[in-house]
Design goal:
Elements: E1 6-9, H1 13-24, E2 29-32, H2 36-45, E3 51-54, H3 57-63, E4 69-72, H4 78-90, E5 96-99, H5 105-116, E6 121-128, H6 130-136, E7 139-144, H7 146-159, E8 162-163, E9 166-167, H8 177-206, H9 211-221, H10 229-239, H11 262-273, H12 278-290, H13 293-302, H14 314-347, H15 353-359, H16 371-380, H17 394-413, H18 419-431, H19 438-449
Parallel strand pairs: 1-2, 1-4, 2-3, 4-5, 5-6
Antiparallel strand pairs: 6-7, 8-9
Helix pairs in contact: 1-6, 8-11, 8-12, 8-14, 9-10, 11-12, 12-18, 14-17, 14-18, 15-16, 17-18
The chain binds 6-phosphogluconic acid.
Length: 468
């Protein structure tokens, strides 16, 4: 029996790749793009395949089996609103619109509310994996009404990355849950990437290792418990030689990184919800600092850099570095999961964190070996507060904390910024402190603003006249 067809609207690189993935898995595809260029590219790459390319939304709607299903692959923002608005005119109640872009979750809430009145199902769907993932199997994070999800699940199950733990897709939760979880996925992505970069920086500046030697370290880590996609591509990036100069290409790349917004949204939402995610936040700050290149160049001339280098045993240091990376990477997942947990409760998403870890095990940018024990921890204890203090990880946290401290100290002593490594250390140190200096903070607030304070030794709210 032939499968019902499926539409993809927006045929940029990601749209084209997803369309080919859907077709390869046995579903006829109606591919729509208003612009001629992308429609032509789609025609080229889908020659001989069961793909019909059209530049008319009406034609796309007319050709779709019911309920109609369309996946929008447009750049997040007003472009997505425009396509939805046009789809509304040609779709009927019961049809399903999926937004597969990196949309900001409040936009997803708004769009869902607007479409609910028309009876059209709206699924805000995070998709991770870049171009190759889109073609061969991404991690897919759909959210929204379960009824709408059930209509698209057979297709998503097939096109998602396949692991020994099942396809990397699940109904993430209600409302904007899918885009929220994808946003936090990206926040974690920022954190892990920045930690990798700081390790690279400490190894080259504080230890004086060459790019070739650092590459070997990451290549070795690919075979270890901290392996994962980002570690693998770090080894690849460090190995790449520039064709023009024969030097490692990374040494020739400008040290300024941009961002599209998902990391910043993660930080903003965490502040709104009162969830500490310092490692992820500092990764956003680190990108902003990287953008201040002219000012950094100027300041580097003012402050001399006579910071010295590591003179101890390199093997020992690399063992500590591995531990520091392990703990910091775990902290990224721990902070991200804690944020999703809080958001799920605040926004009634109903997110299952074990399932979230499972669908991140393949296809996505933050896939890594650590997600397996993380999944098991949430399966055993779905309400778990913080991964780092869970019984399956606290021994690891305690053991590796000393190494993280050593690495941060080395960076500090040699004047190398360890923005995220340092933030992770302070996060763990704060989290494990029975007493923080917020006692003094409360006194200060009460002193200048009569904000009152509580006491350790008795119940009640107190105010003191501090001037007497
Ligand atoms: C993915 C990626 C992808 C993209 C992000 C991050 O999961 O496939 O996260 O969505 O790389 O948009 O982009 P920025 O680093 O530019 O914010």
């Amino acid at each position: 029996m032939s499968q019902s067809n499926f539409a993809v609207a927006g045929l940029g690189v990601m749209g084209r790749m997803v369309a080919l993935n859907i077709e390869r898995n046995g579903f006829p595809v109606i591919a729509y793009n208003r612009g001629e260029e992308n429609a032509d590219r789609m025609r080229e790459v889908s020659k001989g395949k069961n793909v019909t390319v059209t530049r008319s939304l009406q034609e796309m709607a007319d050709q779709l089996d019911r309920p109609r299903r369309v996946l929008i692959m447009a750049t997040a923002g007003p472009g997505t609103d425009q396509v939805i608005e046009e789809l509304r005119k040609v779709f009927d109640p019961g049809d399903i619109i999926i937004d597969g872009g990196n949309s900001h979750f409040p936009d997803t809430n708004r769009r869902q509310a607007e479409l609910d009145s028309s009876g059209i199902h709206f699924i805000g769907c995070g998709i991770s994996g870049g171009e190759q993932g889109a073609l061969w199997g991404p991690s897919i994070m759909p959210g929204g009404h379960k009824e709408g999800y059930d209509h698209i699940a057979p297709v998503l199950m097939k096109i998602a990355a396949q692991t020994d733990d099942g396809p990397c897709v699940t109904h993430v939760g209600e409302g904007s849950a899918g885009h929220y979880v994808k946003m936090v996925h990206n926040g974690i992505e920022y954190g892990i990437m920045q930690i990798i970069c700081e390790i690279y920086d400490v190894l080259r500046k504080s230890v004086g290792m060459s790019t070739v030697d650092i590459q070997r370290v990451f290549a070795e880590w690919c075979e270890s418990d901290i392996s994962g996609f980002l570690v693998e591509i770090t080894a690849d990036c460090l190995a790449k030689q520039d064709e023009l100069t024969d030097k490692p290409l990374v040494e020739l790349i400008l040290d300024t990184a941009g961002q599209k917004g998902t990391g910043k949204w993660t930080a903003q939402s965490a502040l709104d919800l009162g969830v500490p995610i310092p490692t992820l936040n500092m990764a956003v700050e680190a990108r902003i600092l990287s953008g201040l290149k002219p000012r950094r160049v100027q300041a580097s001339g003012i402050f001399s850099n006579s910071d010295g280098q590591y003179s101890g045993d390199r093997g020992e240091l690399l063992t500590s570095m591995y531990s520091a990376f392990y703990l910091s990477k775990m902290a990224c997942y721990a902070q991200g999961m804690a944020l999703i947990r809080e958001a799920s409760s605040e926004f009634d998403y109903g997110v299952n964190l074990a399932e979230t870890a499972r669908i991140w095990k393949g296809g996505c940018i933050i896939r890594s070996k650590l997600l397996d024990p993380i999944k098991r921890a949430y399966l055993a204890d779905p309400e778990l507060d913080n991964l780092l203090t869970h019984k399956s990880f606290y021994e690891m946290t305690r053991r590796r904390l000393t190494d993280l401290r050593k690495v941060v100290m080395l960076a500090t002593e040699t004047g190398v910024p360890a923005t995220c490594l340092g933030a992770t250390l302070s996060y763990v140190d704060s989290y494990r402190s029975e007493f923080l200096p917020a006692n003094l903070l409360q006194a200060l607030r009460d002193n200048f603003g009569a904000h009152t304070y509580k006491r350790l030794d008795r119940e009640g709210i107190f105010h003191t006249d501090w001037t007497k």
